[in-house]
Amino acid sequence: MSLIHEIDYGTPASRSERQVTLTIDGRAVTVPEGTSIMRASMEAGIQIPKLCATDMVDAFGSCRLCLVEVEGRNGTPSSCTTPVSPNMVVHTQTGRLKDIRRGVMELYISDHPLDCLTCAANGDCELQDMAGAVGLRDVRYGYQGENHVRARNDDAINPKWMPKDESNPYFTYDPSKCIVCSRCVRACEEVQGTFALTIEGRGFESRVSPGAHEHFLDSECVSCGACVQACPTATLTEKSVIAIGQPEHSAVTTCAYCGVGCSFKAEMRGEELVRMVPWKDGQANRGHSCVKGRFAYGYASHRDRILNPMIRENISDPWREVTWEEAFSHIATEFRRIQYQYGRDAIGGITSSRCTNEETFLVQKLVRAGFGNNNVDTCARVCHSPTGYGLGQAFGTSAGTQNFDSIEQSDVVIVIGANPTDGHPVFGSRLKKRLRQGAKLIVIDPRRIDLVRTPHVEAAYHLPLKPGTNVAVMTALAHVIVTEGLAAEAFIRERCDWSEFEDWAAFVSDKAHSPEVTESFTGVPADLLRGAARLFASGGNGAIYYGLGVTEHSQGSTTVMAIANLAMATGNIGRPGVGVNPLRGQNNVQGSCDMGSFPHELPGYRHISDDATRDTFEKLWGVTLNNEPGLRIPNMLDAAVEGTFKGIYIQGEDILQSDPDTRHVSAGLEAMECVVVHDLFLNETANYAHVFLPGSTFLEKDGTFTNAERRINRVRRVMTPKNGLADWEVTQKLAQAMGLNWNYAHPSEIMDEIAATTPSFGMVSYDYLDKMGSVQWPCNEAHPKGSPIMHVDGFVRGKGKFIRTEYVATDERTGPRFPLLLTTGRILSQYNVGAQTRRTENVIWHAEDRLEIHPHDAEQRGIKDGDWIKLASRSGDTTLRAQITDRVSPGVVYTTFHHPDTQANVITTDFSDWATNCPEYKVTAVQVSPSNGPTQWQEDYNDLSNRSRRIAGKIQAAE
Amino acid sequence: MSHDQGREKLIRMANQIATFFMSQPETDRAKGVATHINKFWEPRMRRHLFECLDEGADGLMPLVVEASTLIHRPSSQAKPGTSNGIAKPL
């Protein structure tokens, strides 16, 4: 194993299909038209010296090191900014070029510290490499003149010197080492799209400046790490590299945060992780990252991690550490006892969207083959289950239709119920890049999310709808498109069921669905809505991206169908640049759905009542499978309260914090006799657990994650599990204890079983993934290279199905007691329930959840910015601090749910999507009033949490 | 959650499904409700639904009642203590 070195071609690749042949240093080179001489040379294996060029950003031509001579042309053009032309003859090394380069390097080095031996970039410094490459032997100017290097010049203070900025928790900015190549500024602008950095001053005064001469932490910087990656010197350096030193080997793996599924190189020294660097060949992220994936991995070695299995008889007892064997045999005995006493269906399991496909597959296999029922579900229940149902109905598959590269060809983008710059930041950056190139944006969201107006991006339309009225707005868009004759008739006739379309067209054409009528309850002005509809229908390639603001409603599934209708009606399916794109919340939520985590279906979305599918698994597993659907998570909790569901195995999910109506969840858990929690930390659910099985992180195991674009990416083990066992081994040993004859020696064998039983995974194997890098399912004999775009020649179900989408107001309504609507979301630096990110330095950006409230509503209630407020709904109440902002409309309040002490889900209700029981997180009627401090519930809960974290024989660390 | 609350929730869920299918073409309505419940409701939930129906369908939308002839009535409750195909306690 060695360090993976990626070739830097200096400038981005050209997409031209026309080829140009030229001669560089006597070698004939053929490259696409538009390629720079620098890149063409590198492709021929000739490395032209360079400093300001790197292939993650466009050519800039400032360092004057990459000069070349071209026969028949005057002067010495820079190779990064000069495109190739046919029959050009280039020389990269001549006497004249050598002199110029050495002279340039002399100037650079005359204003640079010579502390190479103790510098953090030692061994990874392009300036050092270039000094070597040009043969710099002497600096004739000396080091005594004006400089940025030393704090003092002789006895005087050096005003040009600036101290190191260490404000960012993950990297430092040392201005004394800066060569002002602008790579960081351009990375922030072109790759990340935040424009947080600039060059201040001119000439020798030029400096990199975050914001207006601010510290990094105080600036607009979002800590994505692109600047650090771009920096050729030690000016911007990861603090981990400063602390540890340069890595010596690396492995490509997949981020375990959001559903974008970025590929990273985990750079190691021994078993210590030095840093995570985005992998340029990663097809989801194309070399970019966000603060979570790049830096927030400290939770993996946090002191809160539990490393030994634990048992307790009652949830009021302290935990007792036990051996793995004792834990497994205890669970097996308890689960069998419960089944004997209360019936076979009295236990179940929850698979994790954070674990690998292989681990998820094993948990559902344990439930179906070992427990003998289908009581298995996954946290997709509370996020994207309506996507599965809605897209399954309309198109025939439960997944997004595109790859992320597709955005590069979109002309009009609808973002509805999603906040990509916070929730899916790397996709957000790719979207912003396309928008800066001129694509148009329509945002449909109750809040003014950043994308509505952000540097160099402005939405053409923002439809600020009232929470809960998605279906009405989507149907009104369809009304405009159909009644104004903008529907793509040729596409519909060819690809969809024409009579269903006619039925649907008649339905949406009804005056009741016109924007003028719906305006009264959606709050979206009719003229804005008409403009948005016209733009989407006639603006070229139209793509729809959506998130949990669509699904987490009582009409979540209906909205997904309305989105599918809109895409079909405008002919925006089946080619690059278009499509229906659910932005998945967790790293492997797509995979956990694919792997048969839902109680009604086996891997590959095949219903449990289908005899042929059951037969496949029955033969392989040697059991008879139950043909009835099992309980979904909310149904499990209902059954627990009712007394017919008594035991559960929960892998990597914190239902107490993440699921709605906390009191109901805790009542359900409390009614159970054996709750087994398998996680990294004693999470909130573990407060009600009888057995705790320690989990392993994504760095500690092999496997695969499937991202939002159906891409199956490898996860590679780079260190030994701190708890001793990878999660798949834990499930296997539990299965063995329950009498199942499982003998997987490696996760690749589990993937082989998945491929053998699930047609859409037919060709997937670890060898094949190693060869291909990654593939998007379906990947089988019909699609050997995978399927970047789906429904290319026709829909999976045959003809696309238009479905009527009648708006039904949610039962959750405002009234005199609860006059405001609460909606929820997440922010960039924190992830989901925060179990991971709260245990990293990311808390510096978001130490607590705040309630966003409009100044008008705040004033009426006498609330000032930063005040403690009580937030109450018919389910419960909690307290948190207010943040006054006009990002939310009057009548709407908003909060995140990253911190357990906020307990936002004490407020949310048990209303859910009609089709899938996905909870209605996004609409809760609430009242907000001033408060002095925590509610009784919060105090009681804190008390319970503290008691539940006692471990016998261990002194609790002071909080 | 008491028995009544549980029943109330079940009725609400059934009615939500019926409400969606009410807006669909007439021929698909009852079939749609029944197919949905057969596909996604665990036998315990269907058993409770039939209890409501057998006791007069109080609170249930007429479409749910109409669909009930197409909903699979679960076999009688699996009895505890009869291992029902599973291994004996360890």
Automatic annotation (TrEMBL), chain A:
Single Gene Ontology MF annotation: metal ion binding
Keyword Transit peptide attached: no
Domain 4Fe-4S Mo/W bis-MGD-type: 248-304
Gene Ontology terms: biological process: formate metabolic process; respiratory electron transport chain
Domain 4Fe-4S ferredoxin-type: 169-200, 213-241
Assigned EC number: 1.17.1.9
Keywords carried by this UniProt record: 2Fe-2S, 4Fe-4S, Iron, Iron-sulfur, Metal-binding, Oxidoreductase, Repeat
Record bears the keyword DNA-binding: no
The 4Fe-4S His(Cys)3-ligated-type domain, residue ranges: 96-135
Record PROSITE patterns: 2FE2S_FER_2 (PS51085), 4FE4S_FER_1 (PS00198), 4FE4S_FER_2 (PS51379), 4FE4S_HC3 (PS51839), 4FE4S_MOW_BIS_MGD (PS51669), MOLYBDOPTERIN_PROK_3 (PS00932)
SUPFAM superfamilies to which the protein is assigned, alphabetical: 2Fe-2S ferredoxin-like, 4Fe-4S ferredoxins, ADC-like, Formate dehydrogenase/DMSO reductase, domains 1-3
Span of domain 2Fe-2S ferredoxin-type: 18-96
One Pfam entry name: Molybdopterin
One Gene Ontology cellular component annotation held by this UniProt entry: oxidoreductase complex
Uppermost EC category: oxidoreductase
NCBIfam families: Fdh-alpha
Family, as annotated: In the C-terminal section; belongs to the prokaryotic molybdopterin-containing oxidoreductase family.
PANTHER family given in the database record: FORMATE DEHYDROGENASE H, RESPIRATORY NITRATE REDUCTASE
Protein name: Formate dehydrogenase major subunit
Taxonomic lineage: Bacteria, Pseudomonadati, Pseudomonadota, Alphaproteobacteria, Hyphomicrobiales
Automatic annotation (TrEMBL), chain B:
GO molecular function, one term: formate dehydrogenase (NAD+) activity
Pfam families on file: FdsD
Classification via InterPro entries: Formate_DH_dsu (IPR021074)
First-tier enzyme category under EC: oxidoreductase
EC number: 1.17.1.9
Record's keyword terms, sorted: Oxidoreductase
Name listed for the protein in its UniProt record: Formate dehydrogenase subunit delta
Originating organism: Rhizobium wenxiniae
